[in-house]
Amino acid sequence: MRIIWLGHSGFRLEIGDEVLLVDPWLTGNPMFPEERRAEAIAGATHVLVSHGHTDHTADAVGIARELGIPVAGIYDLVTWWESTEGIEGIGFNKGGTVNLGGTRVTMVNAAHSSSLPGRTGPIYTGTESGYMIAGEGHTIYFTGDTDVMADMALFAELHEPDIGILCAGGYFTMDMRRAAYAARKFFNFRTVIPCHYRTFPILEQSAEALKAGLPGVEVIEPEVLVPIEV
């Protein structure tokens, strides 16, 4: 399994024969070198989105069209895209599991919001979510955008994830200290990867507080397009 950060909350997950692009925001992302777009999306089999905000969905439809691959995510958003954008979708909902080739993806709750900008105000795009992504003997908990939730205790019991990809930039999501608390309180991660940080000055720029709060856990600060092998 290879986990490749695309900046902000975007990831390329290479799991078995599948390549999942999770929350891909490449165009206009200040952390992503746009001249490497072809490299980032090459061979992708699915796009997976956690919620509607444009810093998570900006390139989802374009990539799906370009590569002829489906977008998976919350039913409301994905079926709307199917009818308005003409893409293939896999619309499901919280508690549901879909098999993307050999990779099993279960949608779980998150505590955030979800919308796209419209002409007269925000457009409702279903509710925010996270994912348990299982394959190659590992389970990744991709939090999406969230705060700490008591639900996480149930997620840990049901899925036993060993890898956490945790939003941790603060302001819009939990910060490094709160992410460390969530990981320590509810999970038994071997590896933790922070995201949704460093993109803008308003967000946290370092994961030192996360590392300090998780002694004995491998906390990896990712670098854009540098593979993490697990």
Structural domain count: 1
What is the H/E string? EEEHEHHEHEEEEEEEHEHEHEE
User: Pairing-aware structural class of the strands and helices?
Assistant: alpha/beta
Share of helical residues: 10-25%
Low-confidence parts lasting 5 or more residues at pLDDT below 50? none
Return Rg in Å. Answer: 16 Å
Q: From the 3D coordinates, which CATH architecture would you assign?
A: 4-Layer Sandwich
Spatial strand sequence of the major β-sheet? 6-5-4-3-2-1-16
Which shape, going by the Cα principal axes? globular
Mean of residue pLDDT values = 97
Q: Would you state the CATH class?
A: Alpha Beta
Describe the overall structure.
It contains 7 helices and 16 strands. The protein is of the alpha/beta class. The protein has one domain (2-223): Metallo-beta-lactamase, Chain A (4-Layer Sandwich), CATH 3.60.15.10. The strands form 3 sheets. Strands 6-5-4-3-2-1-16 form a 7-stranded mixed β-sheet, covered by helices on one side. It has a 7-stranded mixed β-sheet with strand order 7-8-11-12-13-14-15, with helices on one face. It has a two-stranded antiparallel ribbon with strand order 9-10. The longest helix has 11 residues, at 75-85. The chain is globular. The N and C termini lie close together (6 Å).
In short:
This protein is an alpha/beta fold. The chain has 7 helices and 16 strands. It has a 7-stranded mixed sheet, covered by helices on one side. The chain has a 7-stranded mixed sheet with strand order 7-8-11-12-13-14-15, with helices on one face. Strands 9-10 form a two-stranded antiparallel ribbon.
